[in-house]
Structure formats: structure tokens, C-alpha cells
Amino acid sequence: MSKIVGFFERLFRNSLFLKILSVVIAIGIWLYIVNVADPRRTEEYTNVPISFVYEGTVPYNNSLMPLVTNRSFYVNLRVSGSRTSLMNFSKDKISASLNFNSVAAAGIYDVPISISLGNDSLTYEILGSDSVTLEFVKKSSTTLKVDMQRIGNYKMGYSVVEQTISPETVTVEGPKSVIDTISFAEVPIDVTESTGNIVEVGDILLLTSDRSYVDRTYLTLSASQVTVSVALQYKKSVKVTTSLVNPYGGDETPYATVSYSPSPYLYLQGDESVLSVIDTYNIGTINLADIPETSRTFEFTVQNQSGIEVVSDSKTVAVTVDLGNAAIKSFRLSAANLRNTTFLNVPEGKTASIKELYKVITLRAQEYTLEELSSDSFRLYVDFSSIPNENGEYPLIIELPSGVYGGLMNRYYVNVTLEDAE
Q: Within this chain, do residues 402 and 363 fall inside the same structural domain, yes or no?
């Protein structure tokens, strides 16, 4: 027995043992406090974010929406529990959300805040209001075509040849009372003095029927901006013209009246430097000898020219030529008249003569002009550089007196005899 007592006396006199024993006792006491006598404690957590999950809730499914511009809400909590539980707990383990189950119709509601701590041994107390006051209204949507709101004017003479807006439409969602007032979706683009292509990104504006701006506080748009592309081209209106000719001889243009349908003007498109010097546009040639009486309508399909595009609505122009009171009269050219023919480009060493006894020609002119003419009024020519017909006859060139206007109705040929010059 004395040996045992002595052993313990020596053991308790050992400083190392005493140190180890002290540590063991301290750990034991701490374990007792923590696990057996652990008192309840509290911790406060501020600015805990409230999850705002609205899609799929009761009011969402009833086509209601809350009038909020910012869905960031926060709550302050006091959490109670054992020291051990709180030691293993942190703010990010708190789940706070809004419970929308009681919202079934439009109105103002105190939406309760639901809290989950993820630990059944902990309890909480909301510091401050345990709900969020929100107003709910009927939700609606509309899809509108986006138009360009032009600010200013293009440079004089320039107009749009192509315009695109992307996206072409915008869907607007929000309170039905606001949606019902929206009539237009537009994007303002400044085009003042523009001459080239325009590509701009602009903000979409929503307007009422009286063109007042719509309050967009509670609205959401499928797109807030659009890209506008505008292609410009210089255009000009010019007068239509045609060339009036008579290949048989004469000039009837002084008494010919020409009218154009559907319009005497064409719209041309092209480079400004090219079009600026163009005042008329010739669409073709009319052979007046093709008019059997005194009036006829010809139809032309207008063709583009190099660097110039015809952009009129109609590419077909009907041209009516009216020769007024013109009449037709035949004249008998006698042998004497034919002997007075002037020959041009006669082969060297040859003389030329016409052996025909007469030639009847037909002339169209104003009646008073025809009354003043006779067979002796015409100058006759034969040019040996011209091409004879299949019978070897040369064209007879008939010239009216100076200042006399009329047109021959046919081409005339004569039999010319060439003889050796004496």
C-alpha cells in the first residue's frame, strides 16, 4: 500500500505530468460545457437577400405582375440555437424568399417572407417587417412593327431605294393599362442632308395614338434597340422626248404634236454628277412615214442607259403623234422636171441622164402648203454613192423649198443612164 501511495506522490511531484493532466482536465471541462451544458445563444444577420422567384407562382399563372422596378429585397434576422450549432452556421446558409400563394387577383398585398435555415435545431426571428408590400396588376403584351422616325430631310434629290430595320418587331410586356395605350414603336434617326447609305443603331420609342411618349417604368421589351439600314440614291424627274424622222425626205416636226402617256416625265436614278446635266430622256425614234393618216400611237419600253436606271412606276410609254390638219397630195414630175436633176458623185468620164417620162410622188403637208406647191417646186438629186435597188435604179432625192415643211410618203427610184462624156 505504501508503495502505491509513494508512486502517486512522486507522480504528482512531476511537473510534466501535472501539465498533461491540466490539459486533459481542461479538455474534459470544455467538452462538458459544449456538449452537455451548452447554453443557447443568438446571432444577428443583416441584409440577407430575399430570392424573388416569380415565374410559375400563383399570380404569374393568373397573368398578374408586381409593380417593381428592382427585385432586390433584404431582411434582417436574429438566429437562436446552441453554441455548437451557431458555430457551424453562416449567413449564406439562410434561404429567404417571398411567398406569393395568397395573391390571386389585382391589388396591394403584404407578401410574407419565408425563411429556411437548413438546421432544425435553430430558430429565427425576423427583425422588422416580416412581409413586403407589393401592388399587383393585370399583365398584358403586344407586338409592334418598328418604324423609322425620320429627323430632318435627305439632301435634295435623294430618296430611299431600300430600308431595313432589324429586328423588325418588338414585343412589349407590362401592365395592361399601359400596354393598351401603346400605338407605335419607332426609332428616331437623323438623316439631315444625307447622300450615302445610313447604318445606325437607335433606341426604340413607344408612343400613344396622339404620339405622346409612353412611361416605360414597368415595361419590358424584347429588344431595346434596333439597327436601321437605309440605302439612298439620287433621283431626278426629266422630260420624255422622241426623235421624229422621215427617211424618205422632208420635215414635218413643226406641225407635229407629240403627247406621252401615262406621263411626259420619267424618274431616273443614278449618280448625281451624271443626272445633274440631264434634262431630257430620249426613248426612241418614230418614223413619220409610218403614220398612214395624220395620227398614230406608238408604244415604247423604256430602256436604261449606262449609269442611269429608269425607276418610274411604268416602264412603258405610249407616244401619240398628231399631224393636225395635214393632208396628202400627189405631184406629177414631168420629163422636164426630171431632166433638171442634179447628179452627185458621177463616175469620171461619164455623163448621167434620166430617160423616164414622169414620176408621181406623194407629199403630206398642211393644206395651205400643198396649195402653194407645184411639180416645179422640188429640187431633185441622184447620188451615185448611194445603193441602187434590185432593178439597178438609184434613189431620187427630193428636196422641198427652204422654209416649206412636209414629208414624202415613200421612197422613189429612177432609171439613170450613164454615157461617155464627149
A: yes
